[in-house]
Amino acid sequence: MTLSFVPLHLSRFWLRGLLALLLSFSSLAHARDYGEIQQQRIHHVLNQTETISEPEGRFKVRTLSAAGKVLGYVFQSLDVVDIPAYSGKPINVQVILDPAGVILDAYVLEHHEPILLIGIAEEKLHGFSARYSGIRVDQRVIVGHSSDPNAVTVDAIAGATVTAMVVNEVIMRAAHDVALSLGLVKGDSAVAVAPARVREDSYQAADWNTLVGNGSVRRLHLTRGQVDDSFKGTEAEQVEVASAGQRDDTFIDLYLTQLNPPSIGRNLLGETQYRTLMAALKPGEQAIAVMGSGRYSFKGSGYVRGGIFDRVVLRQFGDTISFRDLDFQRLDDVALDDMPAFDEMAIFIIRASHRFDPGSPWSLELLVRRQTGPVSGTFSSFELAYQLPEAYLERPLPSAAQLAAAEEASRPLWLTLWYQKSVEISVLGVALLVLTGILFFQDALARRPRLLHWVRRGYLLFTVVFLGGYGLAQLSVVNVLTFVHALFEGFRWELFLTDPLIFILWVFTAASILLWGRGVFCGWLCPFGALQELGNELARRFKVPQYELPFAVHERLWAIKYIILLALFGVSLESMATAERLAEVEPFKTAVTLRFDRQWWFVAYAAGLLLINLFTRKVYCRYICPLGAALAMPTRLRLFDWLKRRKECGNPCQLCAKECEIQAIHPDGRINANECHYCLDCQMTWHNENKCPPLINKRKKRGKASTTDAQLIPVVQVPPAP
Ligand code: SF4
Ligand code: SF4
């Protein structure tokens, strides 16, 4: 096997020009006004709506109301999440929620999905989004099937699974985020694991310093200077300001602990007081102790008047827990000798209704209020964070179902798709390994033409049936345009990972182009190319006459596909949507993705190309295919030339040139790698002692008869078209 390095010809000037053009692109779409349709949807779902507020908050949510009563909320998903769909552009959905966090309507306002622009009827997309009516925002919705019995499943849009998965992600994530921000729902309960339990069986004697040292007791020390600084720039800046000499004086020295663990509670309160306290707690309740000294009282006097402690609140998971006088117990006696004396101490009970998790971090917020007028005041808050040491906790192990659900819920969309297509991915992986093996052992196979013919037919059948028919894995020039645009508009891997088969094929194709040229894809992995090749072979079997153009004409017609590619690229600079429409010059969507189930003119075009192919092999590939042109351009960069030639090739021998059924061999014997589809026919001839004229001459000279029966490649001599 000979290796030769091909010189790299890449015009830097051309690239710079391209770059400059690309940099002038406009950026991603943003939520905007879509006119009548937005109002129509609102009145269709909530026809009693009287007022629609202005967009409010970070997610620009409008409140829908009637007679002062809130009926629901409406927003555009693009104001909440920006998830690229198959086209690389986000899908914008208008979602209407009711005040209980149930989706009332989800309507796709804008998308750029190529398959839906021309192909699958748009009603199918609207039909799909309509299935979200009645689903709660905190439910898990899976497109297809799920092992989670609690998940809601919706059927995908046939032929547009990736788009359906993106729409699902867009609606559910946006609706959940908005509902959370509006307080309509709490955190993700669908996959929540049960809270930790405080271990009541573990006790270790400990003194105050030990408890402070191991994190059982936490401290917040504030000086007067720190508090003054926190009011800077507010109305209360000058209220009760400390003098320079007082700035380091203690404002408050606050200590905090959780009392349920025996190693804390029993040590701090003493055996009797601890038992009494624990006996008074109802299931799910927790007790904390707050102790403070200094000039500021954490209790204040508000609770005496209003029954609520207004200087301390507890926060966990974004929830706020305030304490009432009923939650308060005096703490006078403590059992630790080395504990400092405090001005005030209190026990607060966290009621079970707050669903407090003793094993998760929480904090006590100290509110410092300064009076700025007879009834007005300004607050400054300070946080004392707390996390119970792990030794006091017992964490329930999540069940396998919970773990699976949590893992499934936290997976990014593209990974979910990879999981769902793991069988197809494995089959494709094996097929690509086989193809790599064929390429590496191409000489050995070319010496056995009958075997190679069957291997190739089998592979082409696999490409048509599995890659095309089943996996819909047909690369397209639209992928190329999307990729180039993505490079300059913000490249995101997930944009390309959402279709695993297409992604793997692209990775393999890119590598094979750099190693051997575009022929590996076009000759082996393109479903439409394989369909043409098998169709032509069948036609020749039935003796359908074959026609070829004279090489000079054929060579000039090659340019057409490059012109089409450049035209598509130019149009895409102005409008990607238009370029996607024009990319219908590719019959792939009709023949492969939609299996000829679409408007007659598309079917006629694709069928016409297949019909012409019966008389002249791969006419579409040779002259029209913009994807083939895009793949041919970097073919010049390939590292290897493994297709063998002799010095007699072209002069005088023309056998391979006539045999090559896509006329990729120049009359002078050179193989044009930009056009070659790597079918290996010419290599079978090259190795055939009974067919390759220079080899026959050599054999004759050696005066030896061939030792093997000839396995001749049937040569079809076709007259040039007039
Ligand atoms: S030229 Fe186009 S249709 Fe033909 S095999 Fe290559 S990519 Fe497929
Ligand atoms: S016959 Fe040879 S040159 Fe022609 S497409 Fe096949 S491998 Fe390429």
Low-confidence stretches: 1-29, 705-722
The Rg value, from CA coordinates, equals 37 Å
Number of domains: 3
Shape: elongated
* Helical/strand content category: alpha+beta
- Strand-residue proportion: 5-15%
Helices, by number, come to 30
Mean pLDDT: 85
Number of DSSP-assigned strands: 18
Describe the largest sheet: 5 strands, antiparallel
Spatial strand order of the main sheet: 1-2-3-4-5
Give a list of the ligands. iron/sulfur cluster
Helix content: 40-55%
Distance between the termini: 40 Å
What is the structure about, briefly put?
Helix content is 42%, strand content 15%. It contains 30 helices and 18 strands. A hairpin with a 2-residue loop joins strand 12 (308-316) and strand 13.
Description of the molecule:
With 722 residues, this protein is an alpha+beta fold. The protein has three domains: 31-182, no CATH class; 203-390, no CATH class; 413-546 and 632-702, no CATH class. Helices cover 42% and strands 15% of the residues. It contains 30 helices and 18 strands. The strands form five sheets. A five-stranded antiparallel sheet has the order 1-2-3-4-5, with helices on both faces. Strands 9-10-11-15-14 form a five-stranded antiparallel sheet. Strand 4 (92-97) and strand 5 form a beta hairpin. Helix 15 crosses helix 20. The protein is elongated. The structure holds iron/sulfur cluster (SF4) (2 copies). One iron/sulfur cluster binds at residues 519, 643, 660, 662, 664-665, 671, 676-682.
